[in-house]
Amino acid sequence: xxxxxxxxxxxxxxxxxxxxxxxxxxxxxxxxxxxxxxxxxxxxxxxxxxxxxxxxxxxxxxxxxxxxxxxxxxxxxxxxxxxxxxxxxxxxxxxxxxxxxxxxxxxxxxxxxxxxxxxxxxxxxxxxxxxxxxxxxxxxxxxxxxxxxxxxxxxxxxxx
Length: 160
Hints:
By secondary structure, this protein is an alpha+beta fold. It has two domains: about 1-40, no CATH class; about 50-155, no CATH class. Helix content is about 40%, strand content about 20%. It has six helices and seven strands, in the order H-E-E-H-E-H-E-H-E-E-E-H-H. The strands form two sheets. Strands 4-5-7-3-6 form a five-stranded mixed sheet. Helix 2 (about 30-50) packs across helix 5 (about 135-145), helix 4 (about 80-85) crosses helix 6 (about 145-155) and helix 5 runs antiparallel to helix 6 (about 145-155). The longest helix has 19 residues, at about 30-50. The protein is globular, with a radius of gyration of 17 Å.
């Protein structure tokens, strides 16, 4: 985003009562509502803008051992796999991966290959920290709009 866009968004958030001025500076209010607003917006369209490509596992046995795949530096699981790693609750049926640069590095795992119809959805990572923020996992699950994902999203919500 450009600096002007950021300033406009801050103004919109302040107008909506999400950001308020205090004696110590600006503060976030209505945090839960703001998380819901961002998550729904991300799930309803923004996520697709970060889509890079799709891959597939080399074999069903690799899919079953997905937790053992050593992902390249800065790359992390998102969606259902990340939710499993956070909660040990949902068994992934769809695999999301966030990459910092190019998806080609995933080939170096020796466990997956590019496939336009593959079961692994690759997205551009848009945050700076290591790992995937729970809020992104929460939004990923909302985007799936399936009962099992929504149930797991409720568990993730407790971490936010």
